[in-house]
């Protein structure tokens, strides 16, 4: 029996459960996702679904064993997590990201991604191009944000395996007496590059959408008991050994808002899929993302506070 499940199809039979992922277009990143998951599956450093079959020919698909557990996508689902587990869940969330960034690229063979590593200025230009195709960049405030980001790009730091879309909906959890990450999903945006880009994107989904009405993305900071994102950054700094200043993170927070805005607009597709963000439509989400991106670059991240 087949049923639609996120980016893939759930396939059940004979007591076995799989997820079939098929290529949507030439830019869906399925080859990258397949390569990263295959490499990490052998390394056993970051848990990923087991790939049981693949086809890199014209049809481009792979079949992975479905991981049992809980995925937290919406505010309703976030609210079902027992309150005494929420703090631990937040710290496991960031500890898992530290593990991703600590993957040995040479040992796993993922050093091949270094050939496609894009600098922050190139990445910024790609985001601008995607928003331009969606007809968003005509807004003066958005162009102002792009110009400010381009003029203040941080110096290159260490290069790590970067997930590219690190958020709660891309993690399978075991929620019992001990909170545990069972698998990290959706590696189609994975690359090698600056690790703080992942933190910037994660902030948007953890706290940056607080108060923005939509039917797709839950916001942990809107719920009692989850750590603030400032606490998660402190945890990341402690576990990774990377010193992170608030001024430094302002750039990455602002960039994260733009990256998410571009993806909501359809990653460059000509017809922005408004259904992805609920009945309020694309504009209702893009407007606060741009506004908060500008505020972030000015060092104003009020939405990192957790609801206590």
Description:
By secondary structure, this protein is of the alpha+beta class. It folds into 2 domains: 2-65, Phosphorylase Kinase, domain 1, CATH 3.30.200.20; 75-304, Aminoglycoside 3'-phosphotransferase, Chain: A, domain 2, CATH 3.90.1200. 42% of the residues lie in helices and 14% in strands. The strands form 3 sheets. The protein has a 5-stranded antiparallel β-sheet, with helices on one face. A hairpin with a 3-residue loop joins strand 7 (171-175) and strand 8 (179-184). It is globular and about 55 Å long. The N and C termini lie far apart (43 Å). Residues 9-207 form the Aminoglycoside phosphotransferase domain. It comes from Rhodococcus opacus (Nocardia opaca). This is Aminoglycoside phosphotransferase domain-containing protein.
């Amino acid at each position: 029996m087949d049923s639609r499940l996120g980016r893939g199809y759930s396939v059940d039979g004979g007591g076995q459960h799989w997820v079939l992922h098929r290529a949507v277009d030439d830019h869906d990143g399925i080859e990258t996702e397949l390569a990263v998951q295959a490499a990490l599956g052998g390394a056993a450093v970051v848990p990923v679904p087991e790939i049981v079959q693949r086809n890199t020919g014209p049809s481009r698909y792979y079949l992975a064993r479905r991981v049992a557990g809980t995925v937290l996508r919406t505010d309703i689902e976030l609210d079902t997590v027992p309150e005494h587990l929420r703090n631990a869940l937040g710290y496991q969330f960031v500890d898992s990201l530290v593990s991703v960034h600590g993957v040995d690229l040479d040992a796993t063979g993922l050093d091949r991604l270094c050939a496609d590593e894009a600098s922050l200025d190139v990445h910024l230009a790609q985001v601008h191009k995607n928003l331009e195709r969606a007809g968003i960049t005509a807004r003066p405030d958005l162009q102002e944000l792009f110009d400010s980001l381009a003029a203040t790009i941080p110096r290159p730091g260490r290069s790590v395996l970067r997930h590219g879309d690190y958020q709660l909906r891309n993690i399978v959890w075991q929620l019992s007496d001990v909170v545990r990450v069972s698998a990290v999903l959706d590696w189609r945006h994975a690359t090698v590059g600056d690790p703080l880009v992942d933190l910037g994107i994660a902030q948007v989904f953890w706290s940056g959408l607080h108060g923005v009405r939509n039917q797709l993305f839950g916001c942990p900071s809107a719920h009692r008991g989850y750590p603030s994102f400032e606490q998660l950054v402190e945890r990341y700094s402690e576990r990774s050994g990377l010193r992170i200043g608030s001024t430094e993170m302002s750039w990455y927070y602002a960039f994260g808002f733009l990256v998410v805005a571009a993806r909501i607009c359809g990653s460059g597709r000509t017809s922005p899929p408004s259904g992805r963000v609920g009945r309020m439509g694309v504009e209702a989400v893009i407007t606060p993302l741009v506004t908060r991106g500008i505020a972030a670059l000015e060092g104003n991240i009020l939405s990192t506070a957790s609801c206590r």
